[in-house]
Amino acid sequence: MINFTSAEAARPSRTEGTISGGGATWRTEYVPPKFPQPGEESFPVPQAFSIEQSPGSTSLPHYHDEDQFQVIPAGAGTLGRHDVGGISIHYTNRQTGYGPIVAGKDGLTYFTLRQIATKGIWYLGEGNKPERDAAKRQETAGPIAVKPAAELKSLKAAETEEIIKPHADGLATWLVRVPANVTVASPVHPEGTGRYIMVINGTMQLQGQELTAFTPVFVSHDEKHFNLTAGAGGLEVLVLQYPGGQRVLERKCKPFAAQGPMAKHGSKQVPVAPA
């Protein structure tokens, strides 16, 4: 399974809302989840969207039911104890609490990327008790610098850097630079499951489309061989690999109605309707 929506095609889905700690947000759907029908369960069911937090707004500490990556492409602020901005990455295991996410004076934009979709959000300090099947785990990395356009276009050979050092269970993140009009194989961890490929600079050719920054592409665990093809100006991508093992492979996305209600915290947040 390869699933993506170009940045241009996703733009009309942008909607305004509010956030738990106060302030306006805008959400754009890049990979809307296709929740299974009642009586069915599925793996994977990818979900990718961006959130733009207004200046000074806060998302209160919380956790979700599924493993997720977040990529921060613009703005600045804090995520828990970490300063984030430029291009930063955050990973959390399912039911690991994180936050608050506080936007700075210029706001903060981040993508949330999951290989198993969920609508639930549970706030810390409200009596919610995670039912973990693995230890708490968070990873934060960045800022990640991209090459100037002229330098990327003149790149002579592909380059790969480890951003989140590969874990034994398959969790890993790499930065890959590809010369103009060249195709290289994406890195993959043999113990991992799905990957997101996030274009962060230049363009990527895929299925007859030219994908620009910031476009996430989901590549499922059964697509072991995935090629990265650069456009005329070269390409820089993040490859974000989810962990594997029995803990992950036995997870199934439940139907929308079977996931339980979203916990609220004095905001106007509502569950996202199924695609």
What would a concise description of this structure say?
By secondary structure, the chain is mainly beta.
Explain the layout of strands and helices.
Elements: E1 2-4, H1 7-10, E2 15-18, E3 24-31, E4 47-53, E5 58-59, E6 62-63, E7 68-79, E8 82-85, E9 88-92, E10 101-114, E11 122-123, E12 138-141, H2 149-153, E13 159-164, E14 172-178, E15 183-185, E16 195-206, E17 209-211, E18 216-219, E19 227-241, H3 246-249
Overall number of strands: 19
Residues in β-strands, percent: 35-45%
Which topology of the largest domain does CATH recognise?
Jelly Rolls
Regions with little confidence, pLDDT below 50 for 5+ residues = 263-275
Mind telling me which CATH architecture of the largest domain this is?
A: Sandwich
| CATH superfamily placement of the largest domain | Jelly Rolls
Tally of discrete structural domains: 2
- Which secondary-structure class do the elements indicate? mainly beta
Largest beta-sheet details: 9 strands, antiparallel
Helix content: under 10%
The span between the termini is: 17 Å
pLDDT averaged residue by residue: 88
What is the C-level CATH assignment of the largest domain? Mainly Beta
Number of helices: 3
Q: Quick one: overall form?
A: globular
Q: How big is the Rg?
A: 18 Å
User: What sequence of helices (H) and strands (E) makes up the elements?
Assistant: EHEEEEEEEEEEEHEEEEEEEH
What this model shows, in words?
Helices cover 5% and strands 43% of the residues. It has helices at 7-10, 149-153, 246-249, and strands spanning 2-4, 15-18, 24-31, 47-53, 58-59, 62-63, 68-79, 82-85, 88-92, 101-114, 122-123, 138-141, 159-164, 172-178, 183-185, 195-206, 209-211, 216-219, 227-241. Strands 2, 3, 4, 5, 7, 8, 9, 10 and 12 form a 9-stranded antiparallel β-sheet that branches. The longest helix has 5 residues, at 149-153. The model is unreliable at 263-275 (pLDDT under 50). The two termini are 17 Å apart. It has 2 domains: 2-142, Jelly Rolls (Sandwich); 149-246, Jelly Rolls, CATH 2.60.120. The protein has 275 residues and is mostly beta strands.
